Task: inverse folding
């Protein structure tokens, strides 16, 4: 189980990654998809002379909101209520699920339509619905593939990017009972269209996420491509949107920035096919009952961490995933989290107990590619290092952690490195100790025991016969010359 | 669904009667308490507005293109989305609409309330569709509508729930959309479009950029998943305008 709502007993990142790296088909699929999006993104962001100014404004808008989240959420609640909508507050996943279930049951519905929503994945909504006999139909093509294939999303924007057309065809053929289904993407898309069309016209309740909540007007904005979102937003009688509390923006006009940076970053399009903005209940147009569930689920804690707060600026474009050299090799499932890639490596350990996700802040080479592409300038490497520090301090707070081999080793290393005499002694000792391990190549190719991990994938240069300090001390000193 | 198991029924009852009932007011207060205090001192509305106004906005707001260049960019970007684009004068519009519809083989079209009757050609059936159900709309050949504003830089049409544009489902359920855009409605940049939208920013608003599409399978852009598979645009480039 990898949703954030339950105990998360998944293998740590290195263990999971090792298995997935063996799957050459998966790596091929992930590489192809991330290459294509990254290329398109580079070209449509490169054509804008004001791209950096848009990033800066987007970043500052999101920062401003997070500093005044309480004010803006209340403003949103008041505006939406005036417009005929209803706002609910949920402290955690369980509360959000219970509110949603209560609303569905109030309409005696046992089926709901769903728009792709990472937030609903985060709270494990589909499982909670199934437990009370409510069937959820995912309507986004990728989510439909995953739902029918009984899989988890591996990417924020293109959740099934780890599947190729043959694999999708196999799932559709089996689950939709279509023996003669073709394998062109057109055939597969047409199959999804006819599979869902009848349901769009029939099912009375839809559940969505939200890209932006507009405090000024009480409006909600959803960004999508296929039109499945618009179907869910306009045809059912009842609409329920579940959104993290950080999704609010101050004013309608702020969309002029974010609707430029989000599509170009997410899918590499100048604009995605459909953006919907609506404000509560519109007489004669769309659902006549509209609910927004505002979800905390750990976000309020992040808000008070000055260095990590920027995590919540995220607008879920997934550009960091496409750019990340680690994600591009492992795909999303290695992270064992709904939110994968660089943003997942900082978001998940803050939404869940850090102890259980301690490997994620290390699932990065800190190369900074994620920061460079982020449309709201989240300095992900900075937050990763901050979280690594927290992981260490948390480990040191327990006796087992304090006496653990890592902590002892690091404490020892610190003691050696902060004192010239000790460093000198350690170097002399090391030169003696390394002798049996230096291979003919002149490199240390294999270290024993705990140190073997380091040499598993690389050779180590041995300590030189003479250190710089030793050479410096021994050099002939000219009169009136040389240093101190 | 039929034939629920006893287990399902039991679980359903368990959830409708949770052991600890939710107190929405209490949760609201709790969350607001947790998220307040990021600023050490309370912020006055005036200070909040001043801080908002100090957000730098050095991006391009006003466009630089001439009208002709703007229309050309709009046309080019629309074609990249695989939409077809035609030009007409206000005077020749009914004729142009007839030509485009005939070319697509469409005869029974939905129109929104308030669509200018003077634009409608003879020989087709036009149904005012705001009150129709989705299945009724599904049986029509397409939608003929106007728009509020169009954005050249992104090839985007913006429709609102307004006269001549209609309820949102009109531009969604039928498989074909023919949109009439007046030259004066075409702006160059996204911020310019938001300036046009500002006075009516509570209306239901839909940004449409090409036919519905997906790239979920191997990043190949496929037209038409759930929205209209075909989008045509007629730009009125000269002559006096007669629409809202």
Result:
């Amino acid at each position: 189980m990898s949703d954030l709502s339950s105990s998360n007993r998944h293998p740590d990142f290195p263990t999971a990654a090792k298995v997935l790296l063996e799957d050459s088909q998966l790596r091929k699929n992930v590489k192809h998809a991330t290459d294509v999006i990254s290329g398109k993104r580079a070209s449509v962001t490169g054509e804008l002379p004001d791209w950096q100014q848009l990033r800066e404004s987007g970043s500052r808008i999101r920062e401003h909101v997070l500093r005044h989240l309480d004010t803006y959420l209340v403003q949103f609640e008041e505006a939406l209520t005036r417009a005929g909508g209803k706002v609910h507050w949920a402290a955690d996943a369980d509360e959000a699920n219970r509110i949603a279930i209560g609303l569905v049951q109030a309409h005696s519905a046992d089926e709901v339509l769903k728009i792709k929503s990472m937030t609903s994945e985060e709270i494990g909504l589909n499982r909670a619905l199934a437990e009370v006999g409510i069937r959820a139909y995912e309507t986004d093509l990728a989510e439909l593939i995953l739902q029918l294939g009984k899989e988890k999303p591996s990417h924020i924007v293109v959740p099934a990017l780890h599947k190729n057309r043959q694999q999708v065809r196999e799932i559709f053929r089996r689950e939709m009972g279509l023996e003669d289904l073709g394998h062109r993407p057109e055939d597969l898309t047409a199959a999804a269209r006819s599979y869902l069309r009848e349901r769009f016209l029939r099912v009375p309740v839809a559940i969505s996420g939200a890209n932006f909540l507009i405090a000024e007007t009480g409006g909600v904005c959803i960004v999508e491509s296929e039109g499945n979102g618009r179907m869910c937003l306009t045809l059912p009688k009842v609409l329920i949107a579940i959104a993290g509390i950080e999704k609010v923006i101050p004013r309608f006009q702020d969309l002029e920035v974010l609707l430029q940076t989000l599509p170009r970053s997410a899918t590499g399009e100048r604009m995605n096919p459909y953006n919907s903005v609506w404000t509560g209940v519109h007489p004669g147009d769309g659902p006549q009952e509209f609910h927004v569930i505002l979800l905390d689920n750990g976000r309020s804690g992040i808000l008070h961490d000055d260095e990590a707060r920027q995590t919540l600026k995220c607008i879920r474009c997934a550009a960091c995933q496409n750019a990340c050299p680690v994600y591009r090799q492992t795909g999303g499932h290695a992270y064992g989290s709904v939110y994968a890639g660089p943003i997942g490596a900082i978001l998940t350990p803050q939404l869940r107990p850090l102890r259980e996700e301690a490997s994620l802040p290390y699932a990065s080479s800190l190369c900074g590619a994620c920061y460079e592409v982020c449309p709201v300038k989240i300095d992900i490497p900075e937050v990763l290092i901050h979280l690594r520090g927290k992981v260490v301090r948390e480990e040191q707070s327990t006796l087992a952690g304090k006496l653990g081999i890592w902590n002892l080793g690091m404490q020892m290393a610190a003691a050696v490195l902060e004192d010239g005499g000790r460093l000198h002694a350690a170097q002399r000792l090391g030169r003696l100790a390394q002798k049996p391990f230096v291979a003919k190549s002149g490199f240390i190719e294999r270290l024993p025991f705990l140190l073997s991990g380091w040499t598993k994938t690389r050779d180590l240069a041995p300590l030189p016969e003479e250190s710089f300090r030793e050479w410096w001390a021994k050099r002939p000193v000219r009169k009136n010359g040389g240093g101190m | 669904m039929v034939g629920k198991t006893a287990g399902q029924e039991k679980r359903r009852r368990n959830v409708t009667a949770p052991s600890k009932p939710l107190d929405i007011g209490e949760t609201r207060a709790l969350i607001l308490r947790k998220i307040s205090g990021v600023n050490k001192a309370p912020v006055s509305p005036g200070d909040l507005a001043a801080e908002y106004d100090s957000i730098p906005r050095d991006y391009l707001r006003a466009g630089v293109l001439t009208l002709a260049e703007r229309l050309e960019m709009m046309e080019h970007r629309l074609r990249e989305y695989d939409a077809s684009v035609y030009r007409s004068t206000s005077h020749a519009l009914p004729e142009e609409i007839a030509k485009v519809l005939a070319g697509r083989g469409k005869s029974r079209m939905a129109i929104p309330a308030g669509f200018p009757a003077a634009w409608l050609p003879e020989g087709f059936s036009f149904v005012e569709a705001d009150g129709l159900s989705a299945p009724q709309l599904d049986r029509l050949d397409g939608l003929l509508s106007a728009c509020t504003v169009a954005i050249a830089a992104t090839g985007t049409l913006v429709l609102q729930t307004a006269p001549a544009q209609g309820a949102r489902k009109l531009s969604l359920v039928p498989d074909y959309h023919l949109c009439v855009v007046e030259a004066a409605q075409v702006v160059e940049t996204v911020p310019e479009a938001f300036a046009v939208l500002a006075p009516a920013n509570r209306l239901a608003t839909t940004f449409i950029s090409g036919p519905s599409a997906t790239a979920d399978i191997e990043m190949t852009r496929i037209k038409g998943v759930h929205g209209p598979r075909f989008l045509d645009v007629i730009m009125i480039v000269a002559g006096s305008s007669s629409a809202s």
Q: What stands out?
A: Chain A has a mean pLDDT of 93. The CA atoms of residues 443 and 461 of chain A lie 5 Å apart. The beta strands of chain A are 86-90, 111-114, 135-138, 205-208, 212-214, 219-224, 238-244, 248-249, 274-279, 289-295. The longest helix of chain A spans residues 24-46.
